[in-house]
Amino acid sequence: MARPARKKKDIERAALELFADHGIDGTTIRMIAERAGVTEGALYRHHKSKDDLVRALFEEYFESFGGMLEGIRADAAPVEDRIGQMVRAFLAAYDTDPLGFRFVMLVQHGLLDGIRKDALSPAKVLTRFIEEAIDRGEIPKQDASLKAQLLMGMVMQVAVGERYGRLKAPVAGYAEQVSAAAVAALRAV
Amino acid sequence: MARPARKKKDIERAALELFADHGIDGTTIRMIAERAGVTEGALYRHHKSKDDLVRALFEEYFESFGGMLEGIRADAAPVEDRIGQMVRAFLAAYDTDPLGFRFVMLVQHGLLDGIRKDALSPAKVLTRFIEEAIDRGEIPKQDASLKAQLLMGMVMQVAVGERYGRLKAPVAGYAEQVSAAAVAALRAV
Amino acid sequence: MARPARKKKDIERAALELFADHGIDGTTIRMIAERAGVTEGALYRHHKSKDDLVRALFEEYFESFGGMLEGIRADAAPVEDRIGQMVRAFLAAYDTDPLGFRFVMLVQHGLLDGIRKDALSPAKVLTRFIEEAIDRGEIPKQDASLKAQLLMGMVMQVAVGERYGRLKAPVAGYAEQVSAAAVAALRAV
Amino acid sequence: MARPARKKKDIERAALELFADHGIDGTTIRMIAERAGVTEGALYRHHKSKDDLVRALFEEYFESFGGMLEGIRADAAPVEDRIGQMVRAFLAAYDTDPLGFRFVMLVQHGLLDGIRKDALSPAKVLTRFIEEAIDRGEIPKQDASLKAQLLMGMVMQVAVGERYGRLKAPVAGYAEQVSAAAVAALRAV
DNA sequence: AATGAATGAGATTTCATTCAT
DNA sequence: AATGAATGAAATCTCATTCAT
Q1: What is the pLDDT of residue B164?
Q2: Of C110, C142, C177, Cβ closest to residue D23
Q3: Which of A22, A26, A189 sits opposite B177 (nearest CB)?
Q4: What's the confidence (pLDDT) of residue A167?
Q5: From the CA of A10, how many Å to the C1' of E18?
C-alpha cells in the first residue's frame, strides 16, 4: 500500500459539518478542503464530484438511522415501550452527532430522488412499525401513514427546536415527555 | 400608469416556486427570469439584489403565517377549539399555496439571521398561545416551549409527508385527526 | 435589442486561429478570451461549452468546404476541368483563410463522430463526383472511394507542406501542377 | 534482473494507442497507467515526464519510418519499382501497427519543434529520393518538394480513409493502384 | 422600463507531478 | 520498484451584477 488515505475521514467529516450548517449549495469545495486540512484536489481522489460526496454521506447516515429504528421495530416489547425506545434513540442520536443528524434531516428535502429505492428509510420503518401495532390492536385502526408522520414530526421538531435555541441540549432530557405525548397522540387518532 | 408592474408579481411568484423547489442557492437569477418571462436585467428594476428579493418574499410570507396564527391565539374560544383552528389554518394554507408554505418552512433553516427581531414568527405565537393555555389551566403546567415544538412538528410533518408522497393532498382532510392527536399530546405531557 | 453581440465573431475567430495552431486541447478558454479581448465568461453567453464552440466552428467550416465542392461537382464541364476547378478552389481557400482550412482538416481527426450524418462532407462530395465521372466513362471504372481519397490526399498535403515550410505560399501557384498530377493519377488507376 | 522492465513496454504501448486515439493533450497520465495496468507513479520510474515519454515514442517511431524509406531510396532499382516499394512499405506499416503509424502521422502536426534537426524524417527522405530521380532523368525536372508532398499525400490519405471507414483494411490491398497512380502523377507534373 | 452582452469573482474539476509508505 | 494519496497550478464553467443600447 502507498500513503494510507488518512484524510478521507477528515474530508467527509468536514463536509458533513459544513453541509449541516450552510447547506449543500452554501458549502464550497474550498471550505471543505480548508477545514479538512487538505487541498481542493484531494477531495477528488475519494469522491468523483461534490454531488457524489453528498450522496455518499447521505446514504451512509440515512441508512444508519433507518437501521437503528429497524432494530427497535423488530423487537418484541409492547408498543409504548418501543415508541419510547425510538424516541430515546432519535434524541440520543441527535445529542451524539447533531451535525450528522441535521445533515440527513435537513438535506433530505431535495435529495430523496437519487436514493436507492430499497433504502431503509426512517419513514418506511416507522410506517411498518405503526401498521404492525395496528394489526395487533395496540393502537386504533386508522391511517398508519399519518401516524408515522406525526411521530416523526414530534421527534424531528425537538431537534429543530434545539437548533434554533428554543429547546435546550441535551435533548435526551425531553425523551420521557415526548414519548408520553407520542403515545397519547397515536392513541387519540 | 396603465401597467402597474405586473412583471413584479411574476418575478416574485417565479422566485418563490424555484426557491421552494431548489433552495435559494440552488436557484439562479437566470432561472427566475426565464420562468417569469423576463430577462435578467429586468429583475434588478424591482429588487436591488437577489438577497433583497429573498428577504422580501420571506418576510411577506413569514409574517402572513404568523399573523394568521396570532388572530387565532387572540380569540376567546377554548384551547381545543383553537388548536383545531390552528391546525386547519395551517393545512389549508398548505393546500392553497404549497410552494409559499414550503418556502417559508424549509427556507427558514438558515435564513432567520436577516429577519427583524420583532417579526411575528409562527414559533413565537405558538409558544405564547401554549403559555396562556397553561396559565388558564387548560393544559398541564409543563414546558411550554416543548409543547409548542410538538404542535409545530405534527403539523409541519403532514406537509412534508404530502410533499414526499406519503400523505395525500388536500391535507385539510387530515385536520380533525391531527387536531385530536395534538390535543391529546399536549395534555399528556 | 440590448448591447449588440459585437464580440461573438471575435471570440469565434480567436478560437479558430488558436485551435488551428495549438489544437483544441492545447487551446484554453483563457487564451481565446485574451485574444478576443473579452473575459472568460463572455464565451459562455454564445456557446454552452468549449466543446460546443468547437462543434459550431467545425460544422460551419466543414459544410462551407463541402458546399464549395458540391457547386463544382454539379457543374456540366468535363472532368479534367472540374478537377482543376476543385484543386484551385481548395488551394485558394487555403490561401484565403489558412487557419480556417487547417482547423477543419487537422481537427477532423477525432471529431467526425459528433457531426450530423447528413453533413455535406468534402469526402462525400468527392466520392460522388468520381462515381459520376466513372459512370460517364471519363475515368476508368475502378474503386471510386480510393480515387476520392487520392485526390483529397494530394490537395491536402500541399496545405500541410506549406504549413511546415516545405512549399511556398500562395499555394494557388501549385494549382496547375497538382491538377495535372491528379488527372493523371485518376486515369492511371 | 529476472524481470527486465516489461512494464516499460506496456506503458509505452498504452501511451501510443491513447495518443493515436485522443491526441497527446487528450491523454492523461492516469489513462495511460490504467491501460498499462500500473499506477501513475510507476510511469515516472521509466520516463522523467509526460513530455519525455512523448518524445521517446515519437523519435522511435518517426525514425523507424524514415529509416525504412531510406533503405528503399538507397536501392538501385528503377524509380517505378522503388515508388512501388515505398507505397507497399507504408501501407504494410499501417496494416501492421495502425496506431503507431497514426501516432507519428497525426501527432507530427505540432510536435516537430522538439525533434532533433538531423532526424531522418519521411518527408526529407522522400524529397531526396525525388531529387535523385529527377537528376537521373527518370521523372520530369520539376519542383521536387511538391512531388514529395504529392506522393506523401496519396499514401497518407489511404490510411486516413481506412480510419474513417471509407476504405477497407488491409490497405496493402490498394498498393498496386496507389503505386500506379503515384507514378503517373509524378510523371505528369 | 427592458434587454441581454459582458464583467469579475469565484466555484468545480482536472491533471502532471511528488512523496510517504 | 511500485503504490496511490496528496499537492498545486491551472483549466472549465457559473453566476450575481452592471451597463450600453
Answers
A1: 85
A2: C110
A3: A189
A4: 93
A5: 22
Model pLDDT, residue A110: 66
Mean pLDDT of chain D: 87
Q: Shortest CA–C1' contact from B26: which nucleotide? A: F15
My answer on whether B95 and B149 are in the same domain is: yes
Please answer yes or no on whether D154 and C156 come within 8 Å at the CB atom: no
Got the DSSP string for chain C? Answer: --S--THHHHHHHHHHHHHHHH-STT--HHHHHHHHTS-GGGHHHH-SSHHHHHHHHHHHHHHHHHHHHHHHHTS-S-HHHHHHHHHHHHHHHHHH-HHHHHHHHHHTTTTGGGS-TT---HHHHHHHHHHHHHHTTSS-SS-HHHHHHHHHHHHHHHHHHHHTTSS-S-GGGGHHHHHHHHHHHHHH-
> What is the C-alpha to C-alpha distance for residues C101 and C106, in angstroms, rounded to an integer?
8
Q: Are residues C41 and C66 in the same domain?
A: no
Confidence at residue A176, expressed as pLDDT on a 0 to 100 scale: 95
Q: Can you give the distance from the CA of residue D117 to the C1' of nucleotide F3 in angstroms? A: 39
What is the number of structural domains in chain A? 2
Are B64 and B41 found together in one domain?
no
pLDDT of residue B93: 92
Distances in whole angstroms, Cα of residue C44 to Cα of each of A164, C32, C35: 41, 12, 16
Domain identity same for D96 and D21: no
Query: Is any Cβ of chain C less than 8 angstroms from the Cβ of D164?
Result: yes
* CA C153 to each of CA A29, A189, C156, C181, C188: distance values in angstroms, whole numbers, following the listed order: 50, 84, 5, 12, 16
The verdict on D89 and D159 lying in the same domain is yes
Q: B171: which 3 cell numbers?
A: 391535507
Q: Cell digits for C63?
A: 459544410
Question: Tens digits of per-residue pLDDT, A95-145?
Answer: 999 999 988 887 776 666 667 777 788 888 988 999 899 988 888 888 899
Same domain, B170 and B88: yes
Of B155, B123, B23, the closest CA to residue A108 belongs to B23
Q: What is the CATH number of the domain that holds C23?
A: 1.10.10.60
Residue D30 CA to nucleotide E17 C1', Å?
12
pLDDT tens track for A44-95: 999 999 999 999 999 888 888 888 999 999 888 888 899 999 999 999 999 9
Q: Which band of pLDDT confidence, cut at 50, 70 and 90, is reported for residue B1?
A: very low
- What CATH number should be reported for the domain holding residue D155? 1.10.357.10
Q: pLDDT digit string (tens) for D45-69?
A: 999 999 999 999 988 888 888 888 8
pLDDT digits (tens, 9 = 90+) for B130-155: 888 888 888 888 888 999 999 999 99
Binned at pLDDT 50, 70 and 90, residue D151 comes out as very high
The answer to whether D129 and D82 are in contact (CB under 8 A) is yes
Q: B149 and A167: CB-CB below 8 Å? A: yes
pTM for the model? 0.87
Let me know whether C114 and C58 are in one domain: yes
Pair (C19, C104) in one structural domain: no
Is the CB of C25 less than 7 A from some atom of nucleic acid strand E?
A: no
CA distance A170 to chain B (A): 13
Containing domain of residue B97, as a range?
Answer: 53-188
